[in-house]
Write the structure tokens for this entry.
Amino acid sequence: MDYKKIQSIIAEKNKIFISSHINPDGDSLGSALAVYHYLTKLGKDCRIINHSPVPETYSFLNEDKIFHELDGDSSGFIKNADLGIILDIGDFYRLGDIAYIIEDHSIETVSIDHHPQSDNDFFTNTFIDLEACSVGEILYSYFCDIDKTIIDKDIILGLYIAVLTDTGSFRHSNTTEMSHKIAVDAINLELDIAKIYQQIYESSSVSRIKLLGNVIQNLNFDCNGQLAWFAINEDMVKEVNGSNQDFDGFADFFRSIKGVEVSMMLYDLKGKVRLSFRSKGKYKVSEIAKKMGGGGHPFAAAALVEGEFSQVKSNVLNMLSTYINKYDENNIS
């Protein structure tokens, strides 16, 4: 990756916004936090602006109110910006309404990502590292390349959260040597990693636990127990007085069941269905996600499909079952 080019583009700009995908996660939020503190050190006029609000899980990152949800004021900032730094997005339109502001005002963008490019790669400058576990890891390499002394406690906080969450707490197959180097730096800079873990993973709401219990009661298994899948809709969320953030991570949770190789969530949006796939590593679920109009990593992918729930469910289950059974037939030892 041409880190010097990224550095030179930033050096020429003064007013910069940072953004990421709808429903931001730990990697996108942590990476944005790191870039924000980096740009502030450079004396840039910068803001983090996302289509969606910061999830409650990560609210501790926004105690200083540096994350902005798109509104009239933040929209005006974007329109007058010299540059947009876009993080963790494989598809331009996952920026939500921010994508249309960029298009309408021909704003220069730098995209830094670890996802495969989609057909909607409309960024001015694209920097992708498919081998990186997270955008946070890419940024760490960038800072080390230009001047590692830039990394302070504020920046390492963002980088650490990015890596921690995208590697499943350093458990998933995408965990790299660099991931652990970032963790070591976080410890050396006296980051309270135990507290960070508790804030992200041990602060579940009562509504989340109730919803998880309801989902468990209706969990489905197919393909001789190798596929676990579940459905969620808005009524189920309302029943527990919850929010759409409450089921984040459910697909990862069910993947942990003994014998399960793939887990899938189907979220009924009334006319659209949000699909989330997770794999332990035997099956590449990104292949199914692509066929459904989505994408992602080989073992963690998603898609948003238009259509009635029953039909989408039937189609995706048929595709998954066919893929798993064919793979098993071709790999009989």
Q: What stands out?
A: Residues 3-201 form a domain with the inorganic pyrophosphatase (n-terminal core) fold (CATH 3.90.1640.10). The chain has two domains: 3-201, 206-330. The longest helix spans residues 309-330.
